[in-house]
Amino acid sequence: MPIDFLYPEYEVIRNPQRCIACRVCERQCANEVHSYDQELNLMKSDESKCVNCHRCVALCPTRALKIVKTDHTFKTNANWTNEVIGEIYRQAGTGGMLLSSMGNPKPYPVYWDKILINASQVTNPSIDPLREPMETRTFLGKRPEKPERNLDGTLKTENLPPNLELSVPVMFSAMSYGSISYNAHESLARAAQELGIYYNTGEGGLHEDFYRYGANTIVQVASGRFGVHKDYLEAGAAIEIKIGQGAKPGIGGHLPGAKIVGDVSRTRMIPEGSDAISPAPHHDIYSIEDLRQLVYSLKEATDYKKPVIVKIAAVHNVAAIASGIARSGADIIAIDGYRGGTGAAPTRIRDNVGIPIELALAAVDERLRQEKIRNNVSLVVGGSIRNSADIVKAIALGADAVYIATAALLALGCHLCRSCQTGKCNWGIATQRPDLVKRLNPDIGYKRLVNLVSAWQHEIKEMMGGMGINSIEALKGNRLMLRGIGLNEKELEILGIKHAGE
Amino acid sequence: MRLEGDVRIPSGCAISGIFSRSGKKLNGEAIIRSISTMHDRSNGLGGGFAAYGIYPRNKDLYAIHVFYDSVRAKEECEKEIMANFDVTVAEKIPTRKMPIITDEPAIWRYFGIPFEKLLKDTQLDEREFVARCVVKINTQIKGAYVFSSGKNMGVFKAVGFPEDVGRYYCLDKYEGYCWTAHGRYPTNTPGWWGGAHPFAMLDYSVVHNGEISSYDANRRFIEMFGYKCTLLTDTEVITYIIDYLNRKQHLTLHEVADVIAAPFWSEIDRLPQKEKERFTYLRNVYSSLLITGPFSILLGFSGGMMALNDRLKLRSMVVAEKGGMTYVASEECAIRAIEPNLDKIWSPKGGEPVIVTLNKGVDA
Amino acid sequence: MNYVIIGNSAAAVGCIEGIRSVDPDGAITVISKEPYHVYSRPLISYLIYGKTDEQRMKYRPDSFYEDNGVKAMLGVAVEKVDYTKRRVLLENGEQVPFDKLLFATGSAPFVPPMAGLDEVKKKFSFMKLDDAKVLQSELNPESRVLILGAGLIGLKCAEGILRKVKKVTVVDLAPRILPSILDEEGSEIVRKHIEEQGVQFYLANSVAQFHKNTACLKDGTELEFDLLVLAVGVRPETKLAAGIGCKVNRGILTDAHCATNLPDVYAAGDCSESLDITVNQQRVLALLPNAYMQGETAGITMAGGEKSYNKAIPMNAVGFFGLHIVTAGSYDGEAYVVKEGSNYKKMVSKDNLLKGYILIGDVARAGIYTSLIRERTPLDSIDYELIKEKPQLMAFTAAERAVKLGGARNEN
Amino acid sequence: MKRIYVNEKWCLGCHLCEYYCAFANSGSDDMVKALKDIRIHPRIRIEEKQGISFAVSCRHCAEPLCVKSCITGALRADNGVIAVDKNKCVGCYTCIMICPYGAIMPGVDGSVVQKCELCTNNAFGEPACVQGCPNRAIVFEER
């Protein structure tokens, strides 16, 4: 075997005093890290195969296992870090682009963590969500410019364009069937239904089994148009045109043929084993006018009954782009920040392209207000919403709702090992191998998603109550409820918030 | 120290209102007596009144009340007023010298009506035209501040306790069918004359007690529609919201109340289908105009008055009736002080507006 | 309602529990010659072996009769049954009236005439607790025991006493042991195993003549012995039943409800015959599970409930000196045989059904095979090749497993 | 009555149920102490073949053939839970012969049988296999 210069990043530490050689680690590792030595009655491990997904750690009944970062190191160098050196070795060995998955892991600032939330004291009572109603119901979509009245003077309620109603301003972001498993999709769909929110098909079509969750489904139309047909468009509650994705702005998608099997192939409407390549741009959208045409084509196709979402990655001039989209007829704009996850992306793109969602959101919301069109369109943001405080901050900055995906996958068991591209997800999420897919029981998965979002809802209510706000709409764009900490003037200006203490 | 407009100033307060449905005119004595009963709810940093029906001789003209900090401001402002309005009267508002009232600006009023030609040129509705002029002066002319701009009504306000402010403005000399009053308890500023309440826009005047937690959500939304919240006060944004919904969106005052103090979804979901749709529509379309946090407000408008509490009723407010009179105040004592023998007194539920208007045919 | 049960073993208990599942109130009377609380007959060899004791041998707890409202008349024999007057006459002159009657009279040892048998002083049967007690009291480390009969009773007796005596010899007319449950190859394996423990066999042989403590075998061998155990065979106790006109073949004839030809009269257990579904013939299936289930069926039927017993098959689980044997059904058909060391497996199929099997040694999960026979599972509805390897539910369809394990309802 | 149900769709063949069962019935409060360096004798057993796996343990039949067939009365149903009285059992294996699920097995030394007793007779109180199943392939439910 040629020397690859690479040393395993992680070490599997087994406590021999605890190991009872039950071999669950061996059975559960799709990477075949563990093996049993009959002669010695001992478990062994080959850490070069370990992706640090913790499947073995989590299932070990005696907690005999842990995975640690190796302390094996090159001569320390702040510039030429282990990671940088390793990547060079890898590329020198393969001649290929580096691929990664999930979101940008680099230590760029996380603005959510530099924003603080207000609370009431004395002059205004905080509200106790256990005693008073605390509302998180949210509508997404256009609002009519003026109300109309019937002949008898009552309000004409039918003049409302199609809207999405959410019990809590959280939706599951696009993840295609194919990139994630059937059971992951079922979990998301069932959770969305129980929660009264929406999940998103991503660009993988909608499996026939899931049409029954249509009322809680957003169907996506992306550059590859995989799985798009009339019934598909009509099945969902809304249609999302995906222009870009935070993890890889400007890049299309590539689902390897190995994952295009059986139902995945049928659902995508492409032959088994063929690579599913989504082009970088939509080849019928080279300009904003083209987008408008697609928006209206989709509206025509669905009789103007479904809101159309346009999803873009947060890039440098996102505010101007969003303004253009708002005028294209879209009902909802979804913006995906650079920390958004993915099943596979070129590492350099993932780590270096795009901007933080916090700044993008603040800029877009402000821009749409300046242009007086904020009420024509709803704003959904995603790209690493990690907890309920992030949501409160996003809404206060001006978002109508948030998209979560990485957090949802974590709820399903994802351990962020960032090896989705291998298709050997030990947690049954980013895989199509039947023996692995079955590891995610949707009965458990959907409940964990419901738990997560319900827990967040409780926390959102608690924080709202602290601010003396008892309905989420009074939080939307309420930037006075936020203060920055450790941010410079420019950052504060873009975020439209004051510094703590001001 | 930064003044209103530089910094947001929440405040506690007292409010009181008297309304004669028959159009019977009262001078300002009663309302002063009423608001002074709640002296402890103010801290001397602002008091004010709105009175309707007080300018019967000029009732078809806009009465524009202005504070001036400087001669230059007055010159600049009058130039603007004269350029847009056919002004019939321009005069100093009579005041009574009082040692307790200090730092007085120059206080002027103008009765006039927009030039026809300008209305035609701008294709604006007369009231919209006036509103824009007011916003323009208040945002662009430093040292000038229009604090009243309706027809046959006027706002009188100053830094001081409300009873002193009332005497200062000689309110005993005015007679109106509707009076509202405000005593202010700002929490972090010495107050500024313009920042005192009522806050008025055209003939809408609002006195308010409370601190709304939805402020910035409301402000950033309403500012899309040509308003500029220069004072950063709750009362200002509430006034604009009411102006926007009632005057521009043509919602009824009841509907306005259903937007700003909307019923909870849990209540809406229980209603019959039609009603449910109506409330859902209003809450959805005007979601950013929901006002949360404690408030009790008294809205004065031509021919009527509306009292409204926040939906949780986090601020006290009572309403009483005696004959043709309706009284509203933060505290019952403020009503009893001027009318001990009431026909009826009650505390309206949160979010339930009490709207009184002149009896049919009454032209006050 | 007066229920009367003659006999006090597994069939009687099945009957009592069957009656009580339907009728909590009716009077139940159990009449038995033996003076004991109901005990398990097959345990007498374990008693001697020391693996159980009289207390633990009780088939049901001490409070059983009381808990079930049963009047137990123990230690008293039945003289005869007066069917027309619906009453049972006891030896002691008492009369017990009945509305429903169950014969659970079991079987009795059958001793063929043998020359000189009268001369043998110490001879025993091995059926009942009293037999075991007497035998046990005579055993000593110097005893030489001769057992006639290499069937289940004789061999269990041999196992029970071997470690307590000097020598155990077994003589049988048949050329191999356990001929009723094993095939030749199986008999061979088991015989070798038992011989290795120290038991000596004389097969295809018989006692021509006893001379006191010496047995002269047909082939001329002379065997000295101290104690003689007679385990040649048993016969159903059918006399009382026959006396009132019940049809009796080898055992009392019954239908699927365990009813005899006479109204209100039932029979269950070793005294009766039932339909062996593997050969579709009425047979005496003298085995405890059968007795209990027949008794239960009879009891439920007597009390007015609905129950049939239509899955009777011969089956035996038995072990000798640690070697386990499970057999079931009949062996006429296509055989599949695997022999590995002391493990032996024979599966016999016919007409798309498993008819019988023999497992020696590894008997794990044998019940899965038994159920194929009892349930008459068509072999083409399962993976027979797979299940032949070892008993496993994997051989069933996923849908069938969902019924068996997942709580799914069977569509049929 | 609450029973154990198995859904093979979700069974991963990880065998953890067997280990949790063995631990639960070990009498030890430490899994390592109980199971290290021994061959376990669980009362629940996984069958597996070509990607299919499922656990088998006593079904606690409403009409328990094992109880009816037990020659000693050691197997009894107590409120529907079928348990074996090890003091009475003589290891004749009649129950093994009759159980259609193959859910009764010889105990460690073969002298008596053992079977799932729904952990009613150990410290777990509720089936340990159910608690230990990572994918809810084994559930304990009233149906």
From TrEMBL, chain A:
Keywords: 4Fe-4S, Amino-acid biosynthesis, Glutamate biosynthesis, Iron, Iron-sulfur, Metal-binding, Oxidoreductase. SUPFAM superfamilies: 4Fe-4S ferredoxins (SSF54862), FMN-linked oxidoreductases (SSF51395). It catalyses: 2 L-glutamate + NADP(+) = L-glutamine + 2-oxoglutarate + NADPH + H(+). [4Fe-4S] cluster 2 binds at C29, C50, C53, C56. Residues 10-39, 41-70 form the 4Fe-4S ferredoxin-type domain. Pfam families: Fer4_7, Glu_synthase. This is glutamate synthase (NADPH). The gene is gltA_1.
From TrEMBL, chain B:
The active site is at C13 (for gatase activity). PROSITE patterns: GATASE_TYPE_2 (PS51278). Keywords: Glutamine amidotransferase, Membrane, Transferase, Transmembrane, Transmembrane helix. It comes from the Bacteria. InterPro entries: GATase_2_dom, Glu_synth_lsu_1, Ntn_hydrolases_N. The chain crosses the membrane at residues 285-308. GO terms for molecular function: transferase activity. Residues 13-359 form the Glutamine amidotransferase type-2 domain. CDD domains: GlxB. This is Glutamate synthase subunit alpha. It comes from Caproiciproducens galactitolivorans.
TrEMBL record, chain C:
The keyword Nuclease does not apply. One of its GO terms (molecular function) is phenylglyoxylate dehydrogenase (acylating) activity. Residues 2-295 form the FAD/NAD(P)-binding domain. Keywords: FAD, Flavoprotein, Oxidoreductase. Its EC number is 1.2.1.58. InterPro entries: FAD-bd_OxRdtase, FAD/NAD-bd_sf, FAD/NAD-binding_dom, FAD/NAD-linked_Rdtase_dimer_sf, Rubredoxin_C. It comes from the Bacteria. Pfam families: Pyr_redox_2 (PF07992), Rubredoxin_C (PF18267). Its cofactor is FAD. Residues 314-376 form the NADH-rubredoxin oxidoreductase C-terminal domain. PANTHER family: NITRITE REDUCTASE [NAD(P)H], PYRIDINE NUCLEOTIDE-DISULFIDE OXIDOREDUCTASE DOMAIN-CONTAINING. This is NADH-dependent phenylglyoxylate dehydrogenase subunit epsilon. It comes from Caproiciproducens galactitolivorans. The gene is padH.
UniProtKB/TrEMBL annotation, chain D:
Gene3D superfamilies: 3.30.70.20. Keywords: 4Fe-4S, Electron transport, Iron, Iron-sulfur, Metal-binding, Repeat, Transport. Residues 2-30, 80-109 form the 4Fe-4S ferredoxin-type domain. GO terms for molecular function: 4 iron, 4 sulfur cluster binding; metal ion binding. It holds the Pfam family Fer4_11. It comes from the Bacteria. The keyword Secreted does not apply. PANTHER family: ANAEROBIC DIMETHYL SULFOXIDE REDUCTASE CHAIN B-RELATED, PROTEIN NRFC. This is Iron-sulfur protein. The gene is cooF.
